[in-house]
Amino acid sequence: MGLLDFIWGSRGKDGKPPPHTAVSAAANLHEQGFVHLPGVLTAQECDRICEAFNDYVDQHREEADRFVMQTGRHSRLTNMHLVSEEAQLAISKPLVMDTLDVFFSDRAFVATSLFFEQSSEQAIHRDTPFFHTRPNNMFAGIWFALEDVHADAGPLQYFPGGHKIEIEPIQAAGTAPSELGDAFNRYIGRVAEEVNRRGIPPHIALIKKGDCFIWHPELPHGGTPIRSPGMTRKSMVFHCAPEQETMYGIEEYFGAVPFAPKEIRKVPMMAGRSMLQLERPMFAPNN
C-alpha cells in the first residue's frame, strides 16, 4: 500500500482517516502533489471565519456591492487575513505550519489569502506563474473547507502526480496584460494537454467542513462547474512560502522582465509567524 492509499484509504474504528504527522504530510506533497488533513479546524472556527467575512462586507458595503455576482454571492476577497484574527489562527495551526516547514526545509510565512463564497469554476491551471521562487517550487497553496463540499457546488478537481510534468518555458511578447495573459493561457493549455496525454484522471475533493487541503505549486487543479446554481462552497485559501525566499510573479515567470533582487517586507502574525506586509484586503473577480 502506497502513502497515498494509506492516507485516503485507511480508516480507524470511528471511520476517520489516521492522524497525520508533518513528515508524512510533507512526503505526500512531494510524491503526489497534495495532502488532505482532516479536521484541522472545528466547526465553530469555520463559522467564525465566515462571520469575519460577513463583518468585512458590512463594514465595506460600497466596495462589496460592486463585486456581487449573478448568484447574489460576492466574488473572492483577497487578503482577509490582514484584518481577521480568525483567519490568522487557522493558517497558524501547528500541523499545517509544521508540514510547510518540513516541505520547505525552512520556516514558512504567509504571503496572501483568498476567501471564496462559491466555487471559482476556474480552468485547470498551476499556481507557479503567480507565486514563483528561485529555487523553484518553494511555495504551497493551503485550502480550508468552511463547509462540507457538495458535488454540485463546483468542487476542486486536481490531478495527482501532475506536479511532476515539466513544461518548456514560454516567453511573453511584452509586459502588457494582454501579452502576459496570452502567455499564461498558452502555458496552462500545455499543462492540460500533457495531463490528458498522460491519462492522469481528475480527482474531486469532496472534503468536509474543517478539513485542510495543501497542494504543490505545480499541481494542476481548478474549480469544476457549479451544477446547482446558488450553491455555496465557502473556503479560505492561503499562499505560503519560506521566509528566506523571494517570490516573483507572472512578469518574471514568462520572461517579460528579468529576475532581480526585491525587498520583501514581513510583519508579525499569530503564533510567532510572519506575513507579507500588504496594504489592505480587496475584492477581485473569481478567475
- Main sheet attributes: strand count, strand direction, barrel closure: 7 strands, antiparallel
Number of domains: 1
Contiguous low-pLDDT stretches (5 residues minimum) are 1-18
User: Which percent band covers the strand fraction?
Assistant: 15-25%
Broad CATH class: Mainly Beta
Number of H/I helices: 8
The helicity comes to 25-40%
CATH topological fold name = Jelly Rolls
Give a short overview.
29% of the residues lie in helices and 18% in strands. With 287 residues, it is α+β, with helices and mostly antiparallel strands. Strand 12 and strand 13 (274-276) form a beta hairpin.
Explain the overall architecture:
With 287 residues, the chain is an alpha+beta fold. The protein has one domain: Jelly Rolls (Sandwich), CATH 2.60.120. Helices cover 29% and strands 18% of the residues. The chain is built from eight helices and 14 strands. The protein has helices at 3-9, 22-32, 43-59, 61-65, 85-91, 94-104, 177-197, 250-253; strands spanning 34-37, 77-78, 108-116, 132-133, 140-145, 156-158, 203-204, 212-215, 221-223, 235-242, 247-248, 266-268, 274-276, 282-283. The strands form four sheets. It has a seven-stranded antiparallel beta sheet. A three-stranded antiparallel beta sheet has the order 7-6-9, with no helix packed on it. Strands 4-11 form a two-stranded antiparallel ribbon. Helix 2 packs across helix 6 (94-104). The longest helix has 21 residues, at 177-197. The protein is globular, with a radius of gyration of 18 Å. It starts with a helix and ends with a strand. The model is unreliable at 1-18 (pLDDT under 50).
